[in-house]
Structures are given as structure tokens and as C-alpha cells.
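Per reviewer request, we include the raw input and output of the structure prediction for the construct analysed in the revised manuscript.
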Amino acid sequence: MLSLNWRGITEDFKYRLIILQTICCNSMLSTGDRNIE
């Protein structure tokens, strides 16, 4: 039960990290930097 809970927390953390990266990339792209994929 605990390991399953930990997995859920880890997946949630990864998901939030992806969102943060996407926001950062979008703000970088809006400044004119097109090198980020």
C-alpha cells in the first residue's frame, strides 16, 4: 500500500515537473529563442 502511494506521489511530481518545463520553454520561445524543442 505504501509503495503504491509513493508511486502515485512520484508520478504526480513528474507530471508537475513536465508542466514547469513546458511553461519555461513557452516563455523562452516567446522571447525569440527557438532552439528549445
